Amino acid sequence: MRETIKFRDLTKRFGETVAVDDFSLDVEDEKIIGFLGPNGAGKTTAIMVMATVYRPTSGTVEVEGYDVTLMPERVRELLGICFQDPKFDNRLSIQSVLEWHAKVAGVPRELRVRRIEDVLKRIGLWEDRSKKGFMLSGGMSKKVETAKVFIQRPKIAVFDEPTAFLDVPSRLTIWDMIRELRDGGSTVILATNMMDEADRLSDRVAIMDRGKLVKVGTPGELKQSIRGGEVLVVRSRRPQEKVIEEIRQMPEVVEASYLEGAGVRIYLNQAGRLVQQVLAIFQKHGIGVENVTIAQPTLEDVFLRYTGRSLDGK
Amino acid sequence: MESRNSLAEISYVVSRDVNNLLGRPFVVISRTIGFLVQFFIFGYTVGTLVRGFNFYQYYGIGTVITTVCSVSYLIGHDLFDEAERGVLDYLLSLPISRRTLIIGRALGGAVRSMAYGTPMFIIAMSFLGFRNPLDIAESILALFALAFGISGLSITVAIAIRNEERFDILLSFIELMTVRFSTALYPWKAMPYYVSAVSNFSPVTSTAGIIQSSLFSSITDIMGWGALLTFVFAFFALSSAFYYRRIEGGKYK
User: Fold this and answer.
1) CB-CB: which of B24, B97, B249 is closest to A48?
2) Searching chain B, which residue's CA lies closest to the CA of residue A105?
3) What's the pLDDT at B252?
4) How far apart are CA B122 and CA B117, in angstroms?
């Protein structure tokens, strides 16, 4: 798979504060990469350097082969950004904001009107298109911010917390539209501190903390990277100690212990594949099983495992 | 992507500034009232106190020049407001070169200054009895050049300083030196020597000279035009050579 964006040893300082610290990452073409991390992790700063808005303190970023410091104008031609906080002229109407953005972004005249109507109808703002920015709620402003990118359809689309302030139906619509953007040929960077958003949308996730890249992989790979991250709970009458011992002998099992009440709790990887083998051990010893549940690790668990902190920073 | 040229990009930036001004009618109304009070009441009163020549004509023209000038300085403050609201980050992320952005903003500042400077000028001209269209056209051209240069100066200083408090102090000082120490509101001969020495270097003096010469004697002030265009091009050279590279997003202090 071709790499569209290459971050190489990127560092960005603001005075004494190191916002991005020696950050290196390759972003694959026509994929969604999630930047997952708590507030202050450096996600937005890394994006702003890539977008040529900030200058790197050291290191480089290349977008489609163009260095952001040497050929910033070529880089900006490829980008469309939905900012974390909506950034548009709030004295202008929604329609004026989007028309101006589309014009500056180079959307051909014949497509502008149609795309604006299509996108506004889809995100539920068509009837409000004449409202000025200062009259909009937080959710409506966020929708306008995302609409800029959907109308532009850039080669590199950046969404920084795209569904903050949005209700569930709107959130699902925006997620669908982001997927469609990728399927249409865009590479998408999704910066978020919402674990489920990163999990559902991202082809790969880059976990960031305190300006550093902590771990990168597909959501599945990241979850599997936690040894003993899955939990298999088998409810039954209390099994003998030798059942527990036999389960512990399985190479994928990290720990097995008695469940309070009755049954066994097993910490392992690839629980789905091993459940039959575990049940066979119970059967061999003549212990009837009432039910079996499997708990998958989340990206929150992955973050906790690699940083020692949760996504809310605690 | 639609193919574009720099002129089209500049026109987009200019249109944004003009639309933003039209979205703030109260600013336009309050400044217009300020001008009308200064022109019709203060100017008329001061004019009656001066004997020997028509000072009201002189002062009335000067009022328009200084109003256009002070409106042009506003664009630097807009830059701080945009940085505070993050809109500057958005503008810097757009596929427009930094040079085009600065020139576009300076032109936008000039266009919007003229958008409400020109009606004031027309009112002043008709009230003061100036009717020659060529003289009036030359005067409007000089006002536009001044507005463009001052807007560019204001933007350049804002980018260089990035601190609103220091910017306010420095810009107030520059405004004082360019507007109050100029021949827009009082003639050179009436100034103390230390003011007249400074006024020679003010672009407002050059503009006032061009307009006074054109309206009072229908003569083109070549020296004045030379000085005014030198000021405008000096800003271009300065911003092109250095300051446009310094534009960076993030909040200004």
Assistant:
1) B249
2) B95
3) 55
4) 9
Same domain, A209 and A261: no
Does the beta-carbon distance from B12 to A92 stay under 8 Å? no
Q: What does pTM read for this prediction?
A: 0.84
Q: How confident is the model at residue B253 (pLDDT cuts 50, 70, 90)?
A: low
Write down the residue that tokens 């040079």 correspond to.
B99
Question: How far apart are alpha carbons A213 and B123 in whole angstroms?
Answer: 64
- At A76-115, the pLDDT tens digits run 999 999 999 888 888 899 999 999 999 999 999 889 999 9
The 3-state secondary structure of A110-134 reads HHHHHHHHHHHHHCCCHHHCCCEHH
Q: What is the pLDDT of residue B243?
A: 60
* A202 band by pLDDT with thresholds 50, 70 and 90: very high
Residues A259, A132 share a domain: no
The two tokens of residue A59 are: 């290191």
Higher pLDDT, A265 or B243: A265
Tens of pLDDT along A149-198? 999 999 999 999 999 889 999 999 999 999 999 999 999 999 998 889 99
Q: By residue range, what is the domain housing residue A90? A: 3-220
Question: Has residue A304 been placed in a domain?
Answer: no
Q: Has the ipTM of the complex gone over 0.90? A: no
- Domain of residue B115 covers 6-246
Contacts with B16 from chain A: Cβ below 8 Å? 89, 100
pLDDT at residue number B246: 65
Alpha helices in B1-97 (DSSP H): 6-22, 25-36, 44-49, 55-85, 87-92
Q: Answer yes or no: do A199 and A70 share one domain.
A: yes
**C-alpha–C-alpha distance, residues B138 and B197, integer Å:** 26
Interchain CB contact of B1 with A (< 8 Å):
yes
Distance CA B150, CA B32 (A): 20
Does residue B192 sit within a domain? yes
What does each C-alpha distance from B60 to B93, B125, B130, B209, B253 come to in angstroms?
A: 44, 9, 12, 14, 39
Q: How far is A8 from chain B (nearest CA, A)?
A: 21
Degrees, nearest 5: CA angle A196-A200-A203: 125
pLDDT value of residue B244: 64
Q: How far is B245 from chain A (nearest CA, A)?
A: 10
Q: Do A53 and B12 touch (CB under 8 A)?
A: no
The reported pLDDT for the residue numbered A135 is 92
Q: Is B12 in the A-facing interface, judged by CB distances under 8 Å?
A: yes
Pull the structure tokens for residue B117.
């400077």
Domain C-terminal end among A171, A194, A220: A220
What residues of chain B lie within 8 A of the CB of A108, using their CB? Answer: 2
